[in-house]
Amino acid sequence: MTAFARRARATAARMHPELSLVSYTLLSHLEYQGGCRATDLAAHYTLDKSTISRQVGALEKAGLVERRLDSTDHRVHVLHLTDRGIEVLAQVTDARRIAFRERLAEWGEPDLEKFAEYLLRYNDAASRGDLSFE
Fold it and tell me: Could you give the CA distance from residue 104 to residue 85 in angstroms, rounded to a whole number?
C-alpha cells in the first residue's frame, strides 16, 4: 500500500506541475459535488480545517478554485472550480486514464474483472470504516 501511495503521488506530480495528489483529489471532489464549503471538505476527508485551509488557499492562488457566497445563506462561502480549474482537472484526468490504460493494456478480461471487483470491495470496506490493519 505504501508503494501504491508513493507511486500515486509521483504520478500526480508528473501529470501537472501545479497539482499534487491532494490538490487533484480536492478538485475532483469539488467537481463531483458541484462545489462545497471548506468545512465539508475537511469533514469528508477527515482532515483538520487548517490543513484544508492551506490546500484551498494554494488552489485559489493558482486560480483553480474560487469562493462564492452561498445563494441560500450569504454568511457561507462555497468553493467552486474556476474555468481554469475545470480545464486543468480535465487534463490531469485524461492523462491518468491514459496512464491506467497503458499499465493495464496486457491484462486479460478475467484479470481486469477481478481487479475491478477487488477495488470495489476495498473501497466499499473503506467507506464503511471496516479496514483495520491491526
Answer: 28
Residue 114 Cα to chain centre, angstroms: 24
27 and 19 Cβ atoms separated by less than 8 Å:
yes
Closest by CA to 79, choosing from 87, 88, 70, 91, is 70
pLDDT, position 113: 95
Distance CA 7, CA 21 (A): 10
Measured distance CA(126)–CA(22) in Å, rounded: 18
Blockwise average pLDDT, block size 10, the chain, 134 residues? 69 70 91 94 92 94 94 89 95 88 94 94 81 53
Contact criterion met (CB below 8 Å) for 71 and 56: no
What is the full DSSP assignment across 58-120? HHHHTTSEEEEE-SS-TT-EEEEE-HHHHHHHHHHHHHHHHHHHHHHTT--HHHHHHHHHHHH
